[in-house]
Design goal:
This is DUF1573 domain-containing protein. It contains 5 helices and 2 strands. It is mostly helical. The protein has one domain: Helix Hairpins (Orthogonal Bundle).
Length: 131
């Protein structure tokens, strides 16, 4: 059984994608959308200030376990998104999803199947799947 929400989203993208229908446009717009998510996140730090980045090289003991590594590595983020930045980033993530879904449509890939395969991979790898 397919997920109705995701299938509906994929069908809507298929209906609305007219102007940038070429695979070349889809690939370049997907890249652009990714960069815009990146930029909106950076602006939350550099223009709004609701987020701060506090990064340094982690000190990793030679005998550290995988569970300890999870505690040692952090996001380097301090603070939390204000409603305005959150809204902007969500909109940019939506565009990213739109073009990822458009790529799925062009390649005859079901977006729900992508979610399921990735979830199964994560379930199998569990804690050992740290990237
Ligand atoms: Zn903000």
């Amino acid at each position: 059984m397919k997920d109705l929400l995701i299938d509906h989203f994929q069908e809507t993208v298929n209906e609305l994608l007219i102007r940038h229908k070429s695979i070349l446009d889809v690939l370049s717009k997907l890249n652009e959308a990714s960069a815009r998510v990146h930029r909106a996140t950076v602006k939350a730090v550099t223009q709004c200030g609701c987020l701060k980045i506090d990064a340094k090289k982690p000190i990793i003991p030679e005998d550290a376990t995988i569970l300890q590594l999870k505690e040692i590595f952090d996001t380097h983020l301090k603070g939390e998104l204000c409603p305005n930045c959150k809204d902007t980033i969500e909109k940019e993530m939506g565009r990213l999803l739109f073009y990822l879904t458009a790529l799925c449509n062009h390649l005859d890939i079901n977006l729900y199947d992508v979610f399921i395969k990735e979830q199964k991979a994560l379930d199998t790898l569990n804690i050992f799947n740290f990237t």
